[in-house]
């Protein structure tokens, strides 16, 4: 690891160089089944509120990320690339070499109290999951949420981690004094696909339980339906099954996002595709021939389909946490095997 010699070849590495110092790294492993094979690099960060680069497509300006790397190990994770800025491997290394900013809560409290801080919205879970398994041990989020609550600072959290329910009381306290937005990421409900492509995450139905529980406690929760994986989770029946489950959980919104494959994630994902669905490799090369994103026509089609389904199932803010009567799926909707996209669309790829 080149904590002390971070080359200044990118904005990210400049930020990393400012955050970490070689003398601040303590490396630990824990011999419990939960953490077997995972190495934790504890650091004392120099700054915890990060500004998102101006050119970013993200709809937020400030983020807090107490961890780097993520044991949820989603094959497609776009944050894999950021591990290379630390001279860490973007494949297995990203899943198992976790950087922990152990002073994140105290540092955040200090920065929130600074006269220069204007109380803007802070987004969390935007790089890696702040409720990944490490959080069960390091318990950084209670201190972080507590600091945000005490400063009535608006914030949002995006997660796949059911551990967020541990902090339910704190979230309720924060929501009483400021704007709190919670989103859970559930791209599909196919159990077979989940086991191979998101191997370290809680199952989709457990994540939807989080949505339900938050709603029951008055905290509306949206679902980021991400990623929709071309040819593996995008059939009409699969989209319907997923939106239907999201609606049944009482989500306040559903936002679809098609898989994107930036460098770092792309190589790892394509190797996975070759192992598990080799018949799709050529089609992916064609679909993503122009870069990291699927063609606009494809993205638009998925968005339209999901929005129509959301409308059909009545997903919306006024229904947060309310049980929904969802009609039983018809036989054609109960498909769990990956379905091929309609032939008419294949010809367009
Ligand atoms: S949970 Fe999020 S941050 Fe973690 S590996 Fe999956 S996509 Fe990446």
Automatic annotation (TrEMBL):
NCBIfam families: rSAM_Rv2578c. Residues 336-349 have a biased composition (Polar residues). Keywords: Iron, Iron-sulfur, Metal-binding. Residues 56-305 form the Radical SAM core domain. GO terms for molecular function: catalytic activity; iron-sulfur cluster binding; metal ion binding. It comes from the Bacteria. Residues 330-349 are annotated as: Disordered. This is Rv2578c family radical SAM protein. CDD domains: Radical_SAM (cd01335).
